[in-house]
Design brief:
The chain is an all-alpha fold. It contains 27 helices and no strands. 67% of the residues lie in helices and 0% in strands.
Length: 536
């Protein structure tokens, strides 16, 4: 997970988690509010849980129950379940108040829950308690303190180097310590706040040495980031099997199934994760906006429904996710998928209303996103002057957010390209749109993979709208290179073929492939009718 401490974001795409810093504690169910998780919830007592995977690290306590709850907290950390990790560590501390490593665990959970001051206090307390502890405890505390220093100065490579060096020393002293090995694998990422989702090729050897399901979880991320999807799926499957009660574990397997073209299996996994998530929130009385994973799973499930042409199901979930407050910047920016969906379904006025609601958000990147999506809606309404004003407002907003522009930069570039295509600068517009499409294709991560596909599809639609069939053909080919299993890819290729050669064999083949991919689509899917009409 990416901590709020990590501020350096490239103009490509950051790792999944970027926390919003904000002073508001508003918990109102308003789109632009930033929820703050009550401390009472994080300290609420709990029991030992089943189905969440077993891990163990010696916390140097004589209280067996304290050790069990500490281990449970570690398991939840490795599963990205921050609230339950915090509750478990607090339960361990109620049983043994001298448990330094429980405070180390809290320093992770708190930073991921956007509680910076509490995270700092936790590591300070851990350092005090570790003063007279054994080497194992000291290595853990020292490494975490150095990691936090690197997180706070993410642009300083010497801080990350010092953190890596401390982990190397810890592994030298404790070569079989799973937690040190896992941390060292994560530290191969250039982001010191990485929690495994940004794992790289260099991480793999450490995870393989660590063995067990946490290593399989992070190996799945590493292989996914490397584009080695079969190996990613194998590790994700093993991870899910070891953690059947954890929504993220089940969901993670869906990531890889989707990339392998096994979309219906992926949907089943995302649906199962959704049920686990909702059951958990109801059982523990946790508001939906407090758990990052709920919205994340909704987004991928909705995208999967959209992918298969099940637009009614996709719409319901996208709307639900759009209306959930979040304290994660990436999730707030990803709310753009709802207005983008509405534009794709030829509902630009509704898209404009949704996009404008993002302008109420306090973060300038989210505001910029609202302006960008407004611009796309205005172009779809043939209002280029309004779109130009939205584009300029987006650029102004992004200039107020140094270090975070990468979350919206490609979309703004695409908007500018489409504006030029639709006005008097067609050749330049083509170049800008194709460049944006290539940038989208290069983005890592499961969210970006499908979002990029839909974004390129939108550019191809714009090209067809203005009659630029050469550009439409090139963008359809990019879609084919990105994902040959998507029905929309073959629909786009079929439309280009029909324009060029009518109901040729190529046109009929592409339409047949689109219909096969959309076998479970809504019966009234517009694309199905379009293909039927063009065959006549």
């Amino acid at each position: 997970m990416k901590s709020g401490k990590s501020k350096a974001i490239s103009l490509g795409f950051p790792f999944f988690f970027v926390l919003i810093f904000a002073t508001t504690a508003s918990a109102q169910h308003a789109l632009h509010s930033i929820p703050s998780i009550p401390q009472e919830l994080l300290e609420r007592p709990l029991t030992i849980r089943a189905g969440i995977g077993a891990v163990h690290d010696d916390a140097a306590t004589k209280n067996a129950e304290a050790q069990r709850f500490y281990d449970q907290g570690l398991a939840y950390l490795h599963n990205y379940v921050w609230i339950e990790a915090a509750r478990s560590f607090h339960q361990a501390l109620r049983l043994d108040s001298q448990l330094a490593l429980a405070h180390v665990g809290l320093s992770y959970a708190y930073i991921e829950l956007n509680k910076t001051a509490q995270s700092r206090q936790a590591i300070t307390t851990a350092q005090k308690l570790a003063a007279n502890a054994g080497d194992h405890i000291k290595h853990h505390v020292d490494a975490r303190a150095l990691q936090m220093a690197a997180e706070e100065a993410s642009g300083d490579p010497s801080k990350l180097a010092a953190y890596r060096k401390s982990l190397d020393a810890a592994i030298s002293a404790f070569p079989n310590d799973v937690e040190f090995l896992l941390s060292r694998g994560m530290a191969e990422s250039p982001d010191p706040a990485d929690r495994g989702q940004g794992s790289v090729l260099g991480s793999m050897a450490y995870y393989e040495r660590a063995k067990g399901w946490p290593g399989q979880h992070f190996l799945a991320h590493a292989y996914e980031n490397a584009g080695r999807m079969k190996e990613a799926e194998s590790n994700a499957s093993a991870y899910a099997s070891a953690n059947p009660s954890v929504p993220h574990a089940v969901h993670m397997h869906g990531h890889e199934l989707r990339r392998l073209g096994r979309i219906n299996e992926a949907i089943a996994r995302f649906e199962a994760a959704d049920k686990l998530q909702r059951d958990y929130m109801a059982r523990e009385k946790i508001a939906a906006e407090f758990d990052w994973h709920h919205a994340h799973n909704l987004d991928l499930l909705a995208a999967s429904y959209q992918y298969t042409g099940q637009m009614k199901k996709a719409e319901a979930l996208l709307k639900q996710s759009f209306n959930l407050p979040t304290n994660l910047l990436v999730q707030a920016v990803n709310k753009r998928e709802w207005p983008a969906f509405l534009i794709a379904r030829n509902r630009p006025q509704e898209a404009l209303i949704a996009a404008r609601s993002l302008l109420l958000h306090p973060h300038p990147v989210v505001m910029a996103t609202g302006y960008i999506e407004s611009g796309f809606a205005q172009l779809a309404q043939n209002k280029p002057a309004d779109a130009a004003n939205s584009s300029n407002a987006a650029l102004k907003a992004l200039r107020a957010a140094p270090g975070a522009q990468g979350l919206a930069a490609i979309a703004l570039e695409a908007l500018q390209g489409e504006f030029m295509l639709r006005t008097a600068q067609r050749e330049k517009g083509r170049q800008v749109m194709e460049r944006a499409a290539q940038k989208w294709r290069s983005l890592p991560g499961p969210d970006a993979w499908t979002q990029s596909l839909f974004r390129i599809e939108a550019l191809a639609r714009a090209a067809r709208d203005v009659g630029d069939w050469a550009l439409a053909a090139r963008l359809a080919q990019m879609m084919l290179e990105h994902d040959a299993n998507y029905g929309g890819t073959h629909f786009a290729l079929g439309l280009v073929s029909h324009h060029n050669s009518g109901t040729s064999a190529t046109t009929l083949r592409e339409f047949a492939l689109a219909e096969k991919a959309w076998a479970n689509a809504d019966k009234d899917l517009v694309e199905l009718k379009t293909m039927s009409d063009l065959r006549k």
